[in-house]
Design goal:
The structure is a homodimer. Helix content of chain A is about 70%, strand content about 0%. At the A-B interface, helix 10, helix 11 and helix 12 of A face helix 10, helix 11 and helix 12 of B. The structure holds a DNA duplex. Chains A, B: Keywords: DNA-binding, Transcription, Transcription regulation.
Chain lengths: ~210, ~210
DNA sequence: TGAGAAGCGGAGAAGGTAGTCCACTTTAGG
DNA sequence: CCTAAAGTGGACTACCTTCTCCGCTTCTCA
């Protein structure tokens, strides 16, 4: 449906099956290790040769867009839902929460949203679907007077990018800093939050560094 | 003086000269490209063979500690000076400013401070010199009641680590988000800051992504 | 059922980095 | 000045990743 390949040439049945195996393998590997996993690894996990992976997805974009376009679209829908909420602040907060949670569970997805420029125009376009939703939510928050006027949409993107580096499957640490930064951008109309999660320990810090190391 | 090599074996004069060439080359390359530059590149820039670089600095730590120990010590001194300031808030703020500025101008230095765990115990020890100063500054800020009680030293380390990803030689963007964070961690005793620097543009965002890409 | 097209995968070339080896050069010091 | 020790650097091995080539297999459809 989102896949133009099928329109051009109906794949032979075995080839179609292999394609699905590749997509599934890439989904797992991207989630675990990010978008830069070697094609060899993808082929091995899928049980096909490298050449087959290259034949089906000559550019890494092809694979990335195939895998993540739907997920970004889902998030965009969450953005639309957030716009339906009565409270502008809650809506914005909820959208950020959704976007961050999605990234927290999938390293590849986090890279799609924060470093799309590295993977070509098509990936940028894909990730860009979220932009208008965020812009609308920020605009509405401004009109409600709940965020300081000098903070814009791009600032939110930056702040979320920063938060990503605090994401780790075992801790909710990123929520703690999300709370700090939300406290930093509100007006006095919004009461301060209590900080979620405990202060990080030495071990937390180490884990994070190792996780984000190449 | 900080260099134990000279105590063990006085290097032959030509070897000592080469050693300095290597250190100088590594200083430049680390600053430009981070701590992971190939040894081949260091040798080439220094005008010596790779083998010479390996002979003098068999472990990358050796090179890193040689280069950065003094710089960390200097920063630690800035921390002591910050503790001398009358105002607890100004002192803490000034120290963070100093640490961030040092990292902004040198990618390698930023890695030493934020990812020391990747480069071995000796680098960790080196970077750890800053910890007690930060702890003292934070403690004093708590006593003065200028930062919220649930924020600790480790939080500052995390916040600075996040800010690093916003550092770019051409923009003062990181100061903008430093201001947001500081607004998020103060008590009401401290008045809000006006945000420095403009909102980031699309181009700023791209530049940052490309800068931090491997 | 048997071409012919479509698909397959291992091998291998190309390009990059870590780290070592050893024949050669330079220095120190008697 | 001459020699022994110290130092040198390029070539080399090992390893990893990307991407292609081509002989072989599998499917499709008449």
């Amino acid at each position: 449906m989102t896949d133009s390949t099928e329109l051009h040439q109906p794949l032979r049945r075995d080839a179609a099956r292999n394609r699905e195996l590749i997509v599934a393998a890439a989904r797992d590997l991207f989630a675990e290790s990010g978008l830069d996993v070697p094609y060899d690894d993808i082929g091995r996990r899928a049980g096909v040769g490298v050449a087959t992976v290259y034949r089906r997805f000559p550019q890494r974009d092809d694979l990335i867009v195939t895998l993540f376009d739907q997920r970004v679209a889902d998030l965009a829908k969450r953005g639309d839902e957030a716009l339906e909420m009565e409270d502008a602040w809650t809506g914005l907060r909820s959208f950020v929460e959704k976007v961050m949670t999605a990234q927290a569970g999938d390293r590849g997805f986090a890279q799609v949203l924060t470093r799309s420029a590295l993977y070509g125009r098509r990936v940028e376009t894909c990730a860009g679907q979220l932009h208008p939703r965020l812009a609308a939510l920020v605009e509405r928050a401004h009109q409600a007077g709940v965020i300081r006027p000098d903070i814009g949409t791009a600032d939110f993107e930056m702040l979320m990018t920063m938060l990503i580096s605090m994401v780790h499957p075992n801790t909710g640490l990123w929520r703690r800093y999300a709370a700090v930064f939300f406290d930093g951008i509100t007006t006095d109309l919004v009461p301060r939050e209590r900080l979620p999660a405990d202060q990080p320990t030495e071990a937390d810090l180490r884990q994070l560094v190792l996780r984000w190391a190449h």
